[in-house]
Amino acid sequence: MGRVIRWFPPPNNYIKINTDGSSFGNSGLSGYGGILRNEHGHWIRDFSSLYGFMNNINAKLVAIQKGLQVAIII
């Protein structure tokens, strides 16, 4: 049986950044993406890109880094 995954909003006046990164193979062509949402779950901004060759863990770390960079800009 599958498990239910639910998104929980951030506190008032905060944003939430959800990110993911992966690679084709573990090292391979990688990409990342994410979305920023407010306390009501409304879209603020999203981002995604291919990133070159790396392993899955590094792709996930790049996604977090890019998400924080986007959050600082807004």
TrEMBL record:
<dbReference type="InterPro" id="IPR002156">
    <property type="entry name" value="RNaseH_domain"/>
</dbReference>
<dbReference type="GO" id="GO:0003676">
    <property type="term" value="F:nucleic acid binding"/>
</dbReference>
<dbReference type="GO" id="GO:0004523">
    <property type="term" value="F:RNA-DNA hybrid ribonuclease activity"/>
</dbReference>
<dbReference type="InterPro" id="IPR012337">
    <property type="entry name" value="RNaseH-like_sf"/>
</dbReference>
<protein>
    <recommendedName>
        <fullName>RNase H type-1 domain-containing protein</fullName>
    </recommendedName>
</protein>
<dbReference type="Pfam" id="PF13456">
    <property type="entry name" value="RVT_3"/>
</dbReference>
<dbReference type="InterPro" id="IPR036397">
    <property type="entry name" value="RNaseH_sf"/>
</dbReference>
<dbReference type="InterPro" id="IPR044730">
    <property type="entry name" value="RNase_H-like_dom_plant"/>
</dbReference>
<feature type="domain" description="RNase H type-1">
    <location>
        <begin position="11"/>
        <end position="74"/>
    </location>
</feature>
<dbReference type="InterPro" id="IPR053151">
    <property type="entry name" value="RNase_H-like"/>
</dbReference>
